[in-house]
Amino acid sequence: MPRHLDRDRVAIVAAVVAPLVVSAILVPFRTGFSNTNVALVLVVIVVAVAANGHRLAGALAAVSAAVWFDFFFAPPYERFTVTKPADIETAVLLLVVGLVVSQLAARVRRLRVIAITDAGYLARLHDTAELAQSAKSPDRVVEHVTTQLIDLLSLRGCRFEYGSLIGHPPRLEQDGTVVWDRKNWDVDRLGLPDREVELRTIGNGHFYGRFMLDPTPGAVPPLQARLVAVILADQVGATLDTAGNG
């Protein structure tokens, strides 16, 4: 099972459980803790879940935080009933702020917390996003990204495989590192491995296929280029997911 999917499933569980656990820990102190402070603590939990998961996990965490705030901290306690207008307002604000912040945190994660300022990299991302919006077939986006990856990573070649995970080739991970035989490969010193490297495409938590990268011996693609490659593959995954649900 792809590690990406495992991480997302853990994030879903954390989204539901973490706000409950933190709320239960704070219950003995609720008489000395203002509800505003409790809400702020829960927002921090939402951000933590979203930053390490995805948008769905962040949204679930926001809903869970609002529900358990109501249950534990809005009188009458231990009931899903809110009587004070101030507590209703706090619960609603907690939900809204949690949802907004979780989306921002998930976007930061998507950009790998690295500012991509190179005009060439930005142009590739923009062109691919624009094509993904206008293309009538996801195959056009796949072909476009295949060409982009060859140029971006100085590859000898690149091909896309739909929905298959055969063998255990080196893998370009979401953070731009390369893992081979469960060990990190020093790309910055050694370049890409001298065999095909897989770059998986994930859309909304579903695996749709992978790009098989054929590295050029001696080429050392920088980290930013590898991160852009990951984002391009994610755009293909999103396109295939949209096409599959359309």
Automatic annotation (TrEMBL):
This is Sensor protein KdpD transmembrane domain-containing protein. It comes from Streptosporangium subroseum. The chain crosses the membrane at residues 86-106. It is a multi-pass membrane protein. It holds the Pfam family DUF4118. InterPro entries: Histidine_kinase_KdpD, KdpD_sf, KdpD_TM. One of its GO terms (molecular function) is ATP binding. It is found in: Membrane. It comes from the Bacteria. Its main location: membrane. Keywords: ATP-binding, Kinase, Membrane, Nucleotide-binding, Phosphoprotein, Transferase, Transmembrane, Transmembrane helix, Two-component regulatory system. One of its GO terms (cellular component) is plasma membrane. Residues 13-112 form the Sensor protein KdpD transmembrane domain.
